[in-house]
Design brief:
Helix 3 packs across helix 9, helix 6 packs across helix 7 and helix 7 packs across helix 8. The chain is of the alpha/beta class and 330 residues long. It is built from nine helices and twelve strands. A five-stranded mixed β-sheet has the order 3-2-1-4-7. A five-stranded mixed β-sheet has the order 10-9-8-11-12, with helices on both faces. A two-stranded antiparallel ribbon has the order 5-6. InterPro entries: ATPase_NBD, ROK. This is ROK family protein. Belongs to the ROK (NagC/XylR) family.
Length: 330
């Protein structure tokens, strides 16, 4: 680690797992801890786990820690560092003032944003988008989300919810009811669960309990599985093409579980993009994410460095025994 490199803790709070890492300003993860997210215990238990992991990392660091960055599941208002809304995966999470509560315990400045935007920051500053002034990051997995990054910073929108690309209209999803209550949204045809649903709707005869099984069936030549994957990939590619037409980024980075599949999915993604992208932007590269699962940790830490600017803050004394809110069931 360069002598001038400062340190921050990045925390990634997901519906099933919470991970934290000690991150250098150059993007290196120097230490890492994780634990199951105690979602059933409510917000107190979830925050307790995040605080405990961060406190353990701070206490073990030989050098001062400047700040803490948190990428959290749900719709996050980064200005007020609070959860605007969340799914039933994290019961009671909506309304939680993450930043205030973590800051009060750890005694360090705390930056908070959505986990997908944190992932996008990590990927654009230190991964596939490194050196680019603008990037469109699309996360395609259980859902479809992402972020527009300009000069290394995620665009948040007027209400803090920018990046919900899964809820743009898609002709391929016409008539499919979305989880948001509307119909015809991209997520219902292009997300991982949508691939499985499409396979079953089309009368697929193979045993498929999850999306991975559909990909395995397709690899074995199941035409219904191949069609479900092709439809999902092409729909996402067409959506990316439309977004690139409107936003004109230097690069598109595709992250999430589907981005780590095969040409069965990537080929139709690129075909769909070529169909929709106008000539002036058709050369925009569409590439898979380069970082590992630590992208959100790295990105959250980067947002923490942004928060504190140039002045590092000394690590808190005795962080290993910092009290945490009740309900830590991790």
């Amino acid at each position: 680690m360069p002598a001038a490199d400062r340190l921050a803790v990045g925390v990634d709070i997901g519906g099933t797992k919470t991970a934290a890492g000690l991150v250098s300003e150059s993007g290196g993860v120097l230490a890492r801890r994780e634990a199951p997210t105690p979602a059933a215990g409510g917000p107190d238990a979830v925050l307790a786990t995040a605080i405990r992991l961060a406190a353990e990392i701070i206490a073990a660091s030989a050098d001062p820690v400047s700040a803490v960055g948190i990428g959290a599941a749900g719709v996050i208002d980064p200005r007020h560092r609070a959860v605007l809304s969340a799914t039933d995966t994290l019961p009671g999470w909506a309304g939680t003032r993450i930043g205030e509560r973590v800051e009060a315990v750890l005694g360090l400045p705390v930056a908070v944003d959505n986990d997908v935007r944190a992932h996008a920051v990590g990927e654009t500053r230190f991964g596939a988008g490194r050196g680019r002034s603008s990037a469109l990051v699309i996360a395609a997995g259980t859902g479809v989300g992402g972020a527009l990054i300009l000069d290394g910073h995620p665009q948040q929108g007027a209400t803090g919810i920018a990046g919900h690309f899964g809820h743009i209209p898609s002709a391929d999803a016409q008539g499919l009811l979305c989880t948001c209550g509307r119909s015809g949204h991209l997520e219902m045809i292009a997300a991982g669960p949508a691939v499985l649903a499409a396979y079953h709707r089309a009368g697929g005869a193979g045993e498929a309990d999850d999306t991975r099984a559909v990909f395995a069936l397709a690899a074995d030549g199941d035409p219904v599985a191949e069609a479900a994957i092709r439809t999902a990939g092409r729909a996402l590619g067409r959506a990316i093409g439309g977004l690139v037409n409107a936003l004109d980024p230097e690069i598109v980075i595709v992250a999430g579980g589907l981005a780590h599949t095969s040409a069965l999915w990537w080929d139709p993604v690129r075909e769909g993009f070529a169909e929709e992208a106008i000539d002036l932007v058709r050369a925009c590269p569409v590439v898979p994410a380069a970082l590992s699962g630590d992208a959100a940790i790295i990105g959250a830490a980067a947002l923490a460095f942004d928060l504190v600017g140039a002045a590092p803050v000394a690590a808190i004394a005795g962080a290993g025994s910092v009290p945490v809110p009740p309900g830590d069931s991790a």
